[in-house]
Design goal:
With 334 residues, the protein is α+β, with helices and mostly antiparallel strands. Helix content is 27%, strand content 33%. The protein is built from eight helices and 16 strands. It is elongated, with a radius of gyration of 22 Å. β15 (313-317) and β16 (326-333) form a beta hairpin.
């Protein structure tokens, strides 16, 4: 069996496979619709016949398997295609391969876990929300199981690949550390919060007060008791951002605020700082993110998936419980 990249001459065949197997070339994944016929892909050939197809997309140094179809069963087609994706990911120095499948697809769960993938998140109700965008998604799936949730699986690649920068990023191996904010440095944190709130004002309608500053009502609380902590992020000794956490009523820790100044972004600073933050308090965590914040909506599921020691609960919340649409990640570390 030979695995090779999809060529322009294969595109009509690719489209026919996707339509035949998926009902359309448009595939839903994590709330987004993608035309898999336009994605890069690999195909498997045996005796001159095309017998399998995998399509994928790369983002932030990670490869998502969007579709995988073996047209011959029990002869290693899927295994060969997945191995081809892994080889390609390692050549590009990607840090992981990931995918989602639906809760009814027990065969896929067995297949991927036998090949080194682990369950990193359960996105409860994700298919129900996607069904509103793509009504053709059936309610009942394999073996009569109702389809409601997406299950995310991932396979981490070797440490050398994980060190690779994402597309458009610069490679930077500088030291990233967290430094507890002392009360004497509260004014420094207050100035960083102004930069943070300014960034958020592009997403949410945040107004300046009469003094020309953005209001952050909770700053003093971080210096009054043990249930809140604030940390400076330093990159090679240079102040580059902050992280703020608090203890929720149920005892879980929450990432309340997190910010990296623009000069230190896209160098892995935020990712390493977040990993260090989550590692400081092994136990239960919660992360919430504004769905309008596209960068953070991509950043936190990847960071959490790498740090979590078990399944990640992923749910969407909005008005009236929340002021605006957010996703909430619940997970454990340590």
């Amino acid at each position: 069996m030979e695995v090779r990249e999809v060529a322009p001459a294969d595109r009509a065949w690719v489209e026919s496979v996707l339509v035949g197997r998926w009902g359309s070339t448009r595939i839903m994944s994590r709330g987004h619709s993608v035309d898999a016929a336009e994605l890069p892909g690999l195909l498997a050939e045996a005796d001159g016949e095309r017998v399998g197809l995998v399509t994928f997309q790369e983002s932030a140094g990670r490869i998502e398997v969007v579709t995988l179809d073996a047209l011959r069963r029990s002869v290693g087609v899927g295994t060969a295609l997945l191995a081809g994706v892994r080889q390609l990911a390692e050549r590009r120095r990607c840090s992981r391969i990931w995918l989602v499948t639906t809760n009814d697809n027990l065969a896929a769960l067995r297949f991927y876990q036998r090949r080194g993938f682990r369950l990193v998140a359960v996105h409860v109700g994700a298919v129900d929300r996607e069904r509103a965008l793509k009504p053709g998604i059936p309610l009942v799936g394999l073996e009569g199981v109702e389809i409601h949730d997406e299950i995310e699986l991932a396979c981490a690649l070797p440490a050398g690949a994980a060190a690779a920068p994402s597309a458009g990023a610069r490679e930077d191996a500088g030291e990233v550390v967290l430094e507890k904010v002392a009360e004497r440095d509260k004014a420094v944190l207050a100035r960083l919060l102004q930069l943070y709130r300014y960034d958020l004002s592009a997403i949410r309608h945040l107004e300046l007060d009469a003094g020309g500053t953005f209001v952050f009502r909770f700053l003093d609380l971080y210096f009054l008791g043990p249930d809140r902590e604030a940390w400076f992020i330093r990159h090679d000794g240079q102040l580059s951002g902050f992280a703020m956490t608090r203890t929720l009523p149920d005892g879980a820790s929450e990432v309340a605020e997190f910010f990296v100044v623009r000069a230190h972004r896209r160098a892995g600073v935020g990712r390493r700082a977040a990993a260090a933050l989550l590692g400081r308090h092994p136990g239960r965590w919660e992360v919430t993110c504004d769905l309008a914040n596209v960068g953070a909506s991509r950043f936190w599921p990847e960071v959490v998936g790498a740090a979590a020691t078990g399944p990640v609960e992923h749910r969407r919340e909005g008005p009236p419980e929340r002021a605006y649409d957010q996703f909430v990640l619940r997970f454990s570390t340590g």
